[in-house]
């Protein structure tokens, strides 16, 4: 998984009825776009994440 600043990190809900969590990558802390990432959630709080298999990176230039 590789990301750059400005990409969206989507963590999919793991149970029925749980919504996806979408955050923005504000800093790539790993080398060559690898995790961990500092992300900002819509409510403004930030966290450091090392995404698992339930996550995907969405690049803004490839979103419709």
UniProtKB/TrEMBL annotation:
This is DUF1918 domain-containing protein. It comes from Streptomyces adustus. Pfam families: DUF1918 (PF08940). Residues 55-64 have a biased composition (Basic and acidic residues). Residues 1-57 form the DUF1918 domain. Residues 43-64 are annotated as: Disordered.
């Amino acid at each position: 998984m590789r990301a750059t600043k400005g990409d969206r990190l989507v963590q999919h809900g793991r149970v029925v009825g749980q919504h996806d969590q979408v955050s923005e990558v504000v800093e790539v802390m790993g080398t060559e776009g690898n995790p961990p990432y500092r992300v900002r959630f819509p409510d403004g709080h930030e966290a450091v994440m090392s995404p698992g298999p339930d996550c995907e990176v969405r690049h803004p230039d490839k979103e419709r």
